[in-house]
Write a structure and sequence with these properties.
With 64 residues, this protein is mainly α. It has one domain. Helices cover 64% and strands 6% of the residues. Helix 1 crosses helix 2.
């Protein structure tokens, strides 16, 4: 089953940054979307914010 939600570790791997930077990016996305602090961020929401192609992100997540 494909991964739908992102965790800081996933964001760090996708962006080539550290775990803490992944946490901060997810929090910025939640803030912009007016979500609660611990709400999940979907792959689609992440891709809309970062403007990365959703197909490439999904492929990278489901590879490992």
């Amino acid at each position: 089953m494909p991964q739908v939600c992102l965790y800081p570790k996933d964001v760090a791997q996708l962006t080539g940054t550290g775990y803490d930077a992944g946490k901060r990016l997810l929090q910025r996305i939640r803030t912009q979307l007016r979500k609660p602090a611990r709400a999940y961020v979907s792959v689609a929401e992440f891709c809309a914010y970062t403007r990365l192609p959703e197909a490439e992100v999904a492929a990278a997540l489901n590879r490992g």
